[in-house]
Write the structure tokens for this entry.
Amino acid sequence: MSVEEDTANHGRLLATVHGPQDVKRMSATELDILAAEIRDFLIAKVSRTGGHIGPNLGVVELTLALHRVFDSPRDRLLFDTGHQAYVHKIVTGRQEGFDQLRQRGGLSGYPSQAESEHDLIENSHASTALSYADGLAKAYALRGESRTVVAVVGDGALTGGMCWEALNNIAATDNPLVIVVNDNGRSYAPTIGGLAHHLSTLRLNPGYEKVLDAVKDALGSTPLVGKPMYEVLHAVKKGIKDAVAPQAMFEDLGIKYVGPVDGHDVAAVETALRAAKNFGGPVIVHAVTRKGYGYRPAEEDEADCFHGPGAFDIATGKATAAPVVKWTHVFADELVAIADERPDVVGITAAMAEPTGIAKLARKYPERTYDVGIAEQHAATSAAGLALGGLHPVVAVYATFLNRAFDQVLLDVAMHRLPVTFVLDRAGITGPDGPSHYGIWDMSVFGVVPGLRIAAPRDTATLREELREAVAVDDGPTVVRFPTGTVAADLPAVRRVGTVDVLAESARTDVLLVAVGAFGQLGMEVGARVAEQGYGVTVVDPRWVRPVPAELVELAAEHRLVVTVEDGVRVGGVGDALAQAMRDAGVGVPLRDLGVPADWHPHGSRGQILADLGLTAQDVARDVTGWISRLDTDPVEPPPDPQHPHLPLTVGRSCSCGTSQRPRNH
């Protein structure tokens, strides 16, 4: 019998769950049955849509216990990160939405305020929930409200520095705040570092089973000071004797400790949570779980326990989509090839070795690969140290996550002109994971960093080429950014002008179309459509978008209209940068910039969102044709630039800024 059939025939108990109150009424036997039905439901639904199946299979019993002990939404449940909230969504009455999980109009893959009063923070960047919880608990105390704040934090998230900053402050209060450490030994990959050593050693302790339900009080409310925290985090000197007792680690913080408990035993977790709730102050509940629990393909997946697969076959766990060459694969292959040639090249990632491609380097050169945990800030400054030591680090993270390390890139890396290459996967609109995961900010945010060079390859050949060019830079940091998904077919250039690739050109020089990165193919399609209307179009790929190539400004001066199209926010983007460079060079050609409005765009497929934003070949061609035709019929001298009164102002497009829906009339 298939999982879908089993869910239909034996999911009757799950069908009665419309809110937390329904779970509170169930007996122990019913809870065991419900947990099994929830797993069947999750596997059946996520196998069709893709999503974070592994983390959620691991928190079924834990989530049921949370909703039995606490009164959501009065008591606030915060999940760090939010991708482990699928079971929470089921318990709070959102079962029907799973047919369209992470699809347009369906449930978000993370908590969403628009979906339910039970969701408060729409978090998908790790290590933040404890800080939210600290502030919430303080707010409720000041307002005189009797409410408990609960933060569910993975052991992987605890490798992030914000967690420890928050714990330092939480320990200094007596507010009712329960911290549930979901300890499965993994984030994406197995959790690394000193904290992981403490927790994993405990799991191997022969006395572990005897203390599953024990409640252990801390030695006292001792304020956190620098030296004990340093020793705990780095597991030096003091760490040998205390390695089998993480409660001692939390005692140093002055926070009460409950556990460890079996995270797959509802009764045990419930007992621990009730004890924590009744204490009335900050308490840590340590629950040991297994990521992917109850589904053999996930349990046996050593890479990431089915952390976030696409659609898959339920029986085998194999992906149903045909294998394709992805941007990540190309980067991984080329990085290993470069490392073969250059022993000074090392790799760094932040708990995402497989998703970013660094894992391939780690398998061949483990001694030259570093996984720092969920700690992007540390990754950037550690890379600076490696560079100061004579190496060339390649830091591979998702584009959205590098935002967290802006200060480190600016002052620790760039100010010292250090040769560090940041490789940003999932740049641009990425689709199903929603606005927190869209990598649309990097070209704008990091474009202000002095001496930083940013490359945006358009295909396999240029990714390989530009990665090599980046690693060859020895006087400052570089960024290589690319989107998610399948790499488009190689798009050869007609010729190269300096560092700029000319992809298409005609005898007439009406429009210079600057297609950034993966929009190269779109630029070609737009150029062909506009040419059909009798205009001459030169399509170029700047390759290196920051700083703006001088040759790009020279090409702009040869045309009547410049149009930029980029997979990043318009504010401070490539179009803005080119407009400024043109002004500085005295080039008065009008410019229109097409890109992503600086807004929070809903989840959906990449194609759907780009269509909404008007970033399709048909839409862009219609805009370009309209703009160039109006120059013929109604030429208007641009107003002067207030900063340079002797120069005309280059004009940026204003119709779509600040809105997620693009007006169709201009």
Observations:
- The longest helix spans residues 28-49.
- The chain is about 40% helix and 15% strand.
- Confidence is low (pLDDT under 50) at residues 1-9, 191-244, 639-666.
